[in-house]
Amino acid sequence: AEKYNRGLEKSRQSFGKRLTDLFVNFNGVDDDFYDDLEETLIEADVGFETALQISEEVREEVESSRASDPKVISQLIVDKLVALYTRNGRAEDNHLVFAKEGPSVFLFVGVNGVGKTTSIGKLAARFKARGRRVLLAACDTFRAGAIEQLQEWGKRDGVDVVAGKAQSDPAAVAFEAVKKAREEGYDLVLIDTAGRLQNKVNLMKELDKIKRVIEREIPHAPQETLLVLDSTTGQNALTQAKAFLETTDVTGIILTKLDGTAKGGIVLPIRNQLHLSVKYVGLGETVEDLSPFNPEQYVNGLFK
Ligand code: GDP
């Protein structure tokens, strides 16, 4: 909870404060009030559709309960935000799926710069601390420096890394990694991939090939295909997500850089429009700054 409160500082100062401000010169719940509410939500990247839906539902509930106390109404908005997230899924949705036996494989996809490599480094440390034998696979052979960056995380975390040469076939690296994991008894393989959305056809082929190679070596793998999205890119994150969903089966979202945005609202449309769970959120740059997503802590972090 403390990490959330710290990581959501910027969003709280802006989004949370604007929601609180709705009640500063509160003249009762009239049309202006709902207009302001919608505007505040849209500016926080909740998205147009989701903002209208929240506003509608708050209005219905205010009318049916005849609430007029600003405190009650403000709590009602908070509850709505949490409910909107949780009712579209189950509380345990942020859990990751592991193989019943043998190594589990998690594939990380997303465009360049969103925080894939960093999230893998943070997660590797987390799983290692829980006693799992982790192997990293540097399949982003395209971006200059991506391989070295993953190797750096490997060193820092004290976990092994399988890497090929720059520009080599990512599927060959993936194959080498899952084979090693199976033969040498690793528990978990985290696979970094390149994210060139500019060339969607090639990207799709590349991810497909990586997946086929993995599944041939380890049935039912990858257990998770995690799409990494950068919350500071706002509505663009949704556009990216839609493009990836067209090309690959995504099992969950890692939402990074929540600490770097004043508009933490993007969590809601990810769930509401894309029907995907946010599994982890990035709340800073250090190895500890990755937390399992918790909708209550998130919304409370905005309003603290
Ligand atoms: P990739 O190209 O998707 O692998 O992205 P990187 O892992 O290289 O991350 C790009 C930049 O974002 C790096 O400078 C990271 O330190 C930074 N970054 C990643 N996650 C977070 C986060 O949760 N918070 C902040 N503030 N920075 C982050």
Automatic annotation (TrEMBL):
Family under the similarity heading: Belongs to the GTP-binding SRP family. FtsY subfamily.
Gene Ontology molecular function terms on file: GTP binding; GTPase activity; signal recognition particle binding
Residue ranges constituting the SRP54-type proteins GTP-binding domain according to the UniProt record: 103-304
UniProt-annotated binding residues for GTP: 110-117, 192-196, 256-259
Stated name of the protein: Signal recognition particle receptor FtsY
Keyword list, A-Z: Cell membrane, Cytoplasm, GTP-binding, Hydrolase, Membrane, Nucleotide-binding, Receptor
Ranges of Basic and acidic residues composition bias in the record: 1-10
Portion held of the full protein: 64 to 367 of 376
Catalyzed chemical reaction(s): GTP + H2O = GDP + phosphate + H(+)
Subcellular location: Cell membrane; Cytoplasm
Location of the AAA+ ATPase domain: 102-281
Entry keyword annotation includes Metal-binding: no
Top-level EC class as recorded in UniProt: hydrolase
One GO cellular component term: plasma membrane
GO biological process, one term: SRP-dependent cotranslational protein targeting to membrane
Annotated Signal recognition particle SRP54 helical bundle domain residues: 4-85
Membrane topology, as annotated: Peripheral membrane protein
Domain of life: Bacteria
Oligomer and partners: Part of the signal recognition particle protein translocation system, which is composed of SRP and FtsY.
Assigned EC number: 3.6.5.4
Function, as annotated: Involved in targeting and insertion of nascent membrane proteins into the cytoplasmic membrane. Acts as a receptor for the complex formed by the signal recognition particle (SRP) and the ribosome-nascent chain (RNC).
Name of the gene this protein is made from: ftsY
